[in-house]
Amino acid sequence: MSAAVFKCIVVALVLQQVIAGDHQRRGKELLDTEDSDFFRCKQATRKSCCGPENSMKRFGDKDKTAADQCYAEVAEKFASTAGVTPKQDLFSTEAVKITKKKQFCLHECIGKKNKLLTEDGSLNKTFITDYSMNTIFKEQWQKQVGEKALAKCLEETYIPWPTEETEYKCNPVYVQFQHCLWLEYESNCPDDKRKTNKKCEKTRNRYRMQKSSSK
After folding, report:
1. First vs last Cα of the chain: how many Å apart?
2. In the CATH hierarchy, which fold is given to the domain comprising 3-213?
3. Which long-range contacts (CB under 8 A, 24 or more apart) does 185-192 make?
4. Where does residue 18 rank: exposed (0-12), middle (13-18), buried (19+ CB within 10 A)?
C-alpha cells in the first residue's frame, strides 16, 4: 500500500469520526493535519445502500468545481503556520484537531460557493430545499423520503464552533447537516429500494446504532 493511499484511508476515518459522532461530543471535542497531501485526499463519500445510485454523492457540488477552488483556499488559509510549526504526527491529537478544522472550513467554503449556506455559514434553507427536491431527489419515492429528511435536518440544532477556539474559525454546521440528511435518507429507505448485500447490512446496523445512541 502506497503512502498516499494510506493517508487517504486515515483522513476518511478521521472525517467519519467527525460526522458520525457530532451529537455525542461537546463543541470543543469537534475540533479534536498539517500535511498538505493528507488534506488533499478526496472528500470521504458516504456509501449509499438506497436505490441504484448514490444520490447524496458530492451533495451540492456534483462537478466538484467549488471543491477544487476551496481546497486551494483552505490550504492557503492554514499555510501561515506551516513554516513555523513542527510537522505533526498524523495520529497525534493536534494533527487530528487541525484536520477536523480543515474539513469544517472546506465544507463551509463549498456550501457558500454553491449558495447552500449564507455568509455566516448557516444553512440557506430555501435554497437547500429547492436544490434537493429538484436535483437530488428526482423519483417520487426519493422525494417522499427526501422531504422527510429535509424537514428533520433543516431544523436540527447543530453544535457550533466553540467560542474559545478563535484560530481559523469556520462554521461546522454544513458537515453535520450533510451527515444528518444522509442518515435520515438511508434510514427511511423503502424496503424495495434497499440493497441487501453484506456490506449494506453492516452499514445499516452501524447507522441504527448511531440513531439509537443519539436519542
Report:
1. 39
2. Recoverin; domain 1 (1.10.238)
3. 185/50, 185/55, 185/56, 185/145, 185/146, 185/149, 186/48, 186/49, 186/50, 187/211, 188/145, 188/148, 188/149, 189/49, 189/50, 189/51, 189/145, 190/141, 190/145
4. buried
CB 42 within 8 A of CB 8: yes
User: What is the rounded average pLDDT of the residues 201-212?
Assistant: 74
With beta carbons less than 8 A apart as the criterion, state whether 173 and 121 touch.
Answer: yes
Domain ranges of the chain: 3-213
Q: pLDDT digit string (tens) for 44-70?
A: 456 789 998 888 887 878 778 888 889
Dist CA 1 CA 97 (whole Å): 25
Amino acid 13: pLDDT: 46
54 Cβ contact list (under 8 Å, min separation 6): 45, 46, 47, 48
Residue 39 has which C-alpha cell? 488534506
Quick: pLDDT tens for 66-114: 888 898 888 888 886 554 454 555 455 777 778 888 889 999 999 999 9
Q: Report the predicted TM-score, pTM, of the whole model to 2 decimal places.
A: 0.74
For residue 190, give the nearest of 151, 156, 150, 148 by alpha carbon: 148
CB atoms near residue 24 (< 10 Å): 11
Residue 89: partners with Cβ closer than 8 Å, 6 or more residues away: 95
Q: What is the CA radius of gyration of the chain?
A: 17
